Amino acid sequence: IAPGIFLVIFYLVIVLLSNQMLTSTTEEKENRVTEMILTSITSKTLIVGKIISLIILGLVQIAVLFLPVIIGYFVVSTQMNLPDITPLLANIKWEFWPIMTGITVLLAGFMMFTGLLVGIGAAMPTAKDANNYFGAIIMLLMVPFFLLSLFTTPEPSPIVQFFTLFPLTSPISLMLRNMLGTLTVFDGVAGVVILVISSAITIAAAIRIFRYGTISYGARVNLKQILARK
Asked: 192 CB contacts (<8 Å, ≥6 apart)?
C-alpha cells in the first residue's frame, strides 16, 4: 500500500498539471511578448525558472490534495462516529527501500515529464499544435495500466522489462512493480538510473529548444538544425 501511494500521487499530478506544463512556453509565443521578456533575462534563465516553478507547483499540488483530506478526517472523526482507521494504518508495512524507490521514481519521472512537455511546447508555434503530440505521450505513459495483467506475474516478461527501462513508460512501470513486489534490484536500479539520465537530457533539450525556438512564431522548430548547432 505504501509504495502504491506514490503511483496515485504521480498520476494525479500529471493529470492536473500536464496542460500547464505544455502551455507554459507557448503562451508567450502566441501573445508575442517573448522578445520583451528576453530583454531583461536570458532564455536559459527563463526556461529553467519555468521548469523549477512547475516542479514546486507539483509539490504544492500534492500537499493541497492530501493534507486537507488527512486533517479533515481527524478533525471530523472527533465529532462524528467515523470508522477508526488506526488498525488499518498499523497493518501497512512502511518498508524503507520500497518507499525510497517510490519517492525517487516520483521525482525523477515528474522532472522528465516536465522537461519533455516544456520542450514540446517550446518547439510548437501554438498550444493547439503541441496538443497533437501530447495525446501520444500520455498514451505511452499509461500503457502499463492497459497491460496490468502482465505486471502481476512473479516473473517479469521481456515486455514488462522493456517498459520498465523505456523512459516514457518507466515511471508507471517502476511504481507498479514496486507496489506489487515484483521489482528486482537490478531492474529497480537500472530503471531509476535511466530515468534520472532521461530527466537531465529532456531538461537540457528543453532549454536548447526554447533558446532557438522561442521566437519561431509561424513554424515548428527544426530539431535537426537546433541539435546540430554549436
From this structure: 101, 104, 105, 108, 174
CB 190 within 8 A of CB 104: no
Q: Name the residue among 49, 36, 30, 42 with its Cα closest to residue 216.
A: 30
What is the rounded distance in angstroms from the CA atom of residue 191 to the CA atom of residue 91?
29
Q: What is the mean pLDDT of residues 167-194?
A: 92
151 in Cβ contact with 160 (< 8 Å)? yes
3-state DSSP percent of the chain in helix, strand and coil, to 5: 80, 0, 20
CA distance 33 to 147: 44
Confidence check: pLDDT of 228 > 70: no
How many Å apart are CA 44 and CA 46, to the nearest integer?
Answer: 5
User: What are the residues whose beta carbons fall under 8 Å from the beta carbon of 62, sequence distance 6 or more?
Assistant: 9, 12, 13
Cβ neighbours of residue 157 closer than 8 Å, sequence gap 6 or more = 150
Q: Measured between alpha carbons, how far is 131 from 125 in angstroms, rounded to an integer? A: 11
From the DSSP assignment, how many helices (H) and strands (E) are in the chain? 12, 0
pTM of the model: 0.82
Structure confidence by residue, pLDDT tens digits, 4-15: 889 988 888 887
Counting every residue written for the chain, the total comes to 230
What's the CA gap between 171 and 199, in Å, rounded?
A: 11
Find the radius of gyration of the CA atoms of the chain: 20
Nearest to 112 by CA among 192, 186, 49: 192
**What end-to-end distance do the CA atoms of the chain give, in Å?**
48
